[in-house]
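chain and backbone:
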Amino acid sequence: MEAVIAAQMAYFRSLGRAFMWKVYTQDSPSDLETRLLRAGFEVQAHVTLVVLDTARSQPATVLPPGVEIRRVDDATGLAAAMKVQEVVWSQDCQWLHDALKEELRTQPDTLSIFVGWSEGRPVCSSWIRIEEGAPFASLWGGSVLPDFRGRGFYRAMVAARAEVARQRDIAHLYVEAGDMSRPILERLGFQALSQVAKCIYRPPGVA
């Protein structure tokens, strides 16, 4: 296994790029995460892979007056989505903006981005990716500004994206859930399948 790890590290060093190796509970060898750390990886996060059967009905979400969740596909909407992400995660999301913009241009049928507004202000954002030919879709970016949490915004974004999946006959949704979102998702019917360690390798000189 060490030879496989070393080969991957050498390949990305030759590209001058960092990369992520996701280690799932069921992966072998059972000490893969430890071996990666010993080789020079760092753990970015531990998350839980949770899955929902889209046929399962979702509890109704009632948002406060003046609030709406809607799909966006233009420059203004994408900028609003990224503004939320930057505030919640305290980081520059220009790279994410550019990546999603390119996805919308080249794969508009597989990416749907949602933004929630309260009195004209973007307060939450998220997106769903549909895998071509696969019976599942993935949920990403579910973020709500701190002052607006606990009001149903996160649940409403899950419901909006689940509806996209149902309309496309997607049988399952999955999320790599952090500690904050996992309890909400489990209350909505998602079931935990695996723990995931997100391990990052950064070649020398690569940020």
The radius of gyration is 18 Å.
